[in-house]
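User: Second chain of the day. Same drill as before.
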Amino acid sequence: MDLNLMRELSVKTDTKIVLLILDGLGGLPMDPSGQTELEAADTPNLDALAARSELGLSRPVAAGVSPGSGPGHLGLFGYDPLRFQVGRGVLSALGVGFDLGENDLAARVNFATKDESGRISDRRAGRIPSEKGEELVGLLNERLNLDGVEVFVVHEKEYRAVAVFRGEGLSDALADSDPQRTGLEPLPVEPADGSQEAKESARIADSFVEQANEILADQHPANTVLVRGFGMHPALPSFDETYDLDAAAIASYPMYKGLARLAGMQLLKEGEGIAGEFETLEANWEDHDFFFIHIKPTDAAGEDGDFERKASVIEEVDALIPMLLDLGPDALAITGDHATPAKMKSHSWHGVPFLLASPYTLPTADSFGERSCAGGSLGVFEAEEIMGYLMGHALKLNRFGA
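Assistant: Same format as last time:
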C-alpha cells in the first residue's frame, strides 16, 4: 500500500475503526478430512457476523514465507514488512517502556533449557511463570559485566526478556543464537556483514550468552538464554499522520505494545484477560477513532500444539463479540497476524482468515473459517492492504483523481 497516497486521501471523520487481532489465528486440520481450529470452534457470533461481512485470506509477507510477529503486525498497520524491518528486540524494549537510545542495540531474550549434551530441549524453559523470569533477570543484572558496553536486562513476560547494549559503534547486523528447533545446540552470534562494528557487536553478544550460561547453570528449567531479533531504533512513518487517526492500542504482551508505540498509538491499560481487553475498549470508546486490540493466547496454544485450547480461546473471543458490536464500530476487521497451526506448532505461511464488517460489504458466506474465507469476495490479498480496506469502509478516504 502507498502510504503517501493514504496521507493524501485520508480525511478526519466521526467514524470509528476496530482492528481485532487473534494472534496466530490461521490453522490447519490435524488430518486431511478434519477442520481447522477456527472451523472446529463453536462461534455463533462470528458466523453470524461473517454472513453480513466481506471475507478473504491475507498473506502477511510473501507466498511460502512464515512471518514473525513483527513483520506480521507491520503489514496489518499498512507498512511494507520487507521495507520496514524492525528487530524483535526493539519491539520488546519499547513494549516494556525502555527509553531506547538511537545507538542502543536491543535483542529479544528467551530463557531456555539446555540438556547435558548442550542441546536445547525446550526453547521456552517450560513457559516459566513471570515471577521466576523476574528473578532470573535480577540475577543477570546483578552479575553481568561486559567489556566496553553497559547492558540492561528487562523482564518482558514469562520466559521472555529483552537485553539492551549501550556503547559506541554497535551494529544490529547480527544473526540469532536461537536454532528455532529443539535437539540442536545454540548457535554462535555471527556478524551478518564484514564490518568491524558487526564483528565487535557479535563478540559482545556471545560474551553476554557465555556469562548468562554461567550465571544460570544451577537453575532449572531455565539454565540458558537464546538471543534473537537484534535491532536498533528505526524510523516509521507516523500512523496518525498517515491515516489522520487518533489511534489507541489494547494489548497484554509487551512486544505488541512496542509495535503500537513504534507506530505512534496511545497505549491503553488493559484489564484482566481477554474480557478485560474488551472492557478497556468499552471504557475508552469515546476517546479514539481507531482501536487495535491484540489477543495473544491463540498463538500460544498453536505453538504448544494444543488444537483444543486454541479453539477454546477463539470461542472465548466469540462470546465477547456482541459486546463489541454493541459499541457500533463503523468498520471492523477480525483477523490474525499470521497462521500458527497446532499441527505445526509454529508460525506458518498459510493464509490468515479475514473478516471485514461495515454497512458497505458484499457478503459471500455464512461462517467464519479458512475455507469460507478462501471463497470470499476479497480472495487472497496482501495483509498490507487491510488498512486501506478499513479506511475505505469507514468513509475516511477522499476520492482519488477527478
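Residues 196-216 form the longest helix (21 residues).

User: Great, on to the next one.
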